[in-house]
Amino acid sequence: MYVYIFKLHNDKDGADHMKTIFESTVTLEEAAAVSLSKPYLPYQPCPEFSKPPKSGEIYPIEPLKVFDNVYWMGTRAVGVLVIDTGDGFIMIDSGSSDAEAAYIAESFAHMGLDPAKIRLIVVSHEHFDHYGGVPYFIRNVCPDVLLAISRTGWNLLQTVPTEFAFIEPRPEKADILVDDGLCLKLGNTRLFCVSTPGHSAGCLSFIFNSSLHGEELTVGVMGGSAVWPNFPEARMYQNSIEYFKLFTDLAGCNAFSAVHQREEVLDLVRDHWNKGTAHPWACTEDTFNEAYLQPFRNKVLNTIYSDFIQQYLMPNGKPEGSPLPSRKE
Fold first, then answer.
1. For a disulfide at 130, which of 93, 107, 142, 280, Cβ 3.0-4.6 Å?
2. Contact 223/259 with Cβ under 8 angstroms?
3. What pTM was estimated for this model as a whole?
4. CATH code of the domain made up of 17-38+61-313
């Protein structure tokens, strides 16, 4: 069922023709049946390593509408994106803990939405601040919800000890193990998933359809933000940006968002709805690369050429004639 071969052929003039990324979609039930038929590691309780830190005080942010059918909910630490598909909600990520998940559930009511209608939680990557709220939602809010996570991310969580970004609580089941190129269909929404390792091994990025004041949008979201000061991971992140760009170009992305957000940026989104100012996350197909992807490239280059990495790789700094572009100031 999953055949995502995008380059179909070359014309005589050499022009590549590619499918639309939304052409091959599957329902949640179809995705679950097929993805779980492939090998994956069974659930294992967290291998003991260190005691997880106690949940600290959370700093909630008032939820807000992002696009016509998309909402942002969360805290200063992390949030979630909620997509109203017309047939229930897709929620990207879940918060880091029971406390954050409870606040997110309350935020649904604040926006006049019913969290019991969450049909699918998609975990962008296997770090606790993205999967940690899943058990709370399953226990207390939407017990029939389906959980999607990358196959790589799920497998890693079955072996990595409770250290660093992999602390408890962890999901005890996954209904859909996402492989690169999966496009899920729910209601009027198509959610296309791209494997973009670097921030984490199993990191996913997303492209989905939405609208702003009735005008169609195609939204691109990178699933991981931080670039770790580790040369292989930074290089992998760099590769993933360019790989994701292949699909954002193909889809014609003209809007973007993220789960980690600064309050001052969220205030600009509020101003759009309240004061009619320009939407900070709306752009054009021609400006998406510069507006959204270029800042990620700058992060990578700042990391690669940082003193922390350079002392192990190139004592004299960036070599003359390096194939990498210079960092944009």
1. 93
2. no
3. 0.88
4. 3.60.15.10
